[in-house]
Design a protein that fits this description.
Layout (H helix, E strand, L loop, with lengths): L3 H15 L5 E5 L12 E4 L17 E4 L3 E5 L10 H4 L1 H8 L4 E10 L9 E8 L28 H14 L4 E7 L8 H10 L3 E3 L3 H9 L3 E11 L10 H10 L1 H14 L1
Parallel strand pairs: 1-4, 1-5, 5-9, 6-7, 7-8
Antiparallel strand pairs: 2-3, 3-4, 5-8, 6-9
Helix pairs in contact: 1-3, 4-8
Bound molecules: hypoxanthine.
Length: 266
């Protein structure tokens, strides 16, 4: 169980090394690690107190800073063995480093037939039936209340702004409900049918715990999925990590332009 001082220690190093606070943080998902190269600071996670090391392929493990935003290149997943509390440590550290708006990106499988590999989709809401939550345990009231509302988990205001940005750029932006699965195995066809019946449009192995931790401490959240594959059984083909990474890479430039525009406008 982390203490407030642990988050403060991490925030202190982040602001010292990045030349101050930022109001926006962007978290890059699988295969998106090299989207932003023009940065003012590069801070390896290994130099930030209490930060875990990403072990997932295509997750770099560096915090970058631009003049407006912190950029997390590489995140932590449940399937790596990190607890929900450990994998959301960075969210509270960033809150103490000034962040009010958190943009979470990820690679996701398409459950809805309205989505295709290569699509970029706004997350309208999420479903977490894992039975896990990063806030299980003693509540630290200095971050937020024990019980809190999740009716606008993904900020309608930020979603509207993201839609305006996409329109300006002529980029098609789909939308969907993100269904969390721990992985690391991809879903079975029967699980994908169950996810569809329960209201999921996208399926992936990240994002929801971070969103919960961020809402708890009062951040606004924007979620964006890069659709890398049809979920198992939807398109007929098997799912492979290589395809996921390849498609995320191919959508990279469109996503980079969109994210740059969003950071400018929020
Ligand atoms: N399932 C779960 N996670 C994913 C997928 C998928 O099909 N694609 C990318 N991340």
């Amino acid at each position: 169980m982390y203490k407030r001082e642990d988050y403060e220690a991490a925030a202190h190093v982040i602001t010292e090394r990045c030349g101050g606070e930022r109001q926006i943080a962007l978290v890059l998902g699988s295969g998106m690690g090299r989207l932003f190269e023009e940065v003012s600071a590069v801070l390896p996670y290994s130099e930030i107190p209490h930060f875990p090391q990403p072990t997932a392929p295509a997750h770099r493990g560096e915090l970058l800073a631009t003049d407006k935003a912190f950029i997390m290149c590489g995140r932590f997943h449940r399937y790596e063995g990190y607890t929900p509390e450990e994998l959301t440590f960075y969210v509270r550290a960033l809150r103490l480093a000034g962040v009010r708006k958190l943009v979470l990106t990820n690679a996701a499988g398409a459950v809805s037939p309205a989505l295709r590999p290569g699509d970029i989709a706004l997350i309208s809401d999420h479903i977490n039936l894992s039975g896990e939550n990063p806030l299980i345990g003693r509540n630290d009231e200095s971050f937020g209340e024990r019980f809190f509302d999740m009716s606008e988990a993904y900020s309608p205001k930020l979603r509207r702004k993201a839609e305006e940005c996409a329109k300006r750029l002529g980029t098609e932006l789909k939308r969907g409900v993100y269904f969390y699965m721990s992985g690391p195995s991809y879903e079975t066809p029967a699980e994908v049918r169950a996810i569809a019946a329960l209201g999921g449009d996208l399926v992936g192995m990240s994002t929801v715990f971070e969103c919960i931790a961020a809402r708890h401490c009062g951040m606004e959240v924007l979620g964006i999925s890069c659709v890398t594959n049809m979920a198992c059984g939807v398109g007929g083909a098997a799912v492979s990590a290589d395809d996921v990474e390849k498609t995320a890479g191919e959508s990279g430039e469109r996503l980079r332009c969109l994210l740059t525009e969003i950071i400018k406008s929020i």
